[in-house]
Amino acid sequence: MPLRKLREFLDRHQIAYLVISHSVAYTAQGIAAAAHISGKELAKTVIVKLDGKLAMAVLPASSLVDLPSLRAASGAASIVLASERDFRDYFPDCETGAMPPFGNLYDLPVFVEQRLTLDNEIAFNAGSHRELVRLAYADFEKLVKPQVASFAAGRKAAAA
Fold first, then answer.
1. Whole-model pTM over 0.85
2. Which of 72, 82, 122, 152 is the S-S candidate for 47 at Cβ 3.0 to 4.6 Å?
3. What is the pLDDT of residues 27-43, one digit of tens each?
């Protein structure tokens, strides 16, 4: 069960959280709609390769990763979006594309979009395409210790 590892971690650290079940959805915007959450409130996890090493970029579901901004924030010489083939086996307890933004559980660095730090809560995939977890952003930050940076672009700007 994909949620088990995350749930055990949160319980061990005595973190209050809510599990939200929803109909199957595969895109961040589809998940937001199915769970009745704004795309700005739902965080998505995008896997990137910084100088050839996997890392997590966590940003609002309604945004895209601005790769040059994330590269600059990370200090990496190169950045590319990782393909599912690159990371699929790295998260054996998760459905492909539904990884929670807890890079510390997978020995990956985590970069979080600065805008998410302004929210009281963060909601994200819990390892499956049917469940979200919502918890206080302060708890997420305390447990994950992400590097905060500004790297989200609006859909139109990032697609150009």
1. yes
2. 82
3. 666 776 666 676 667 89
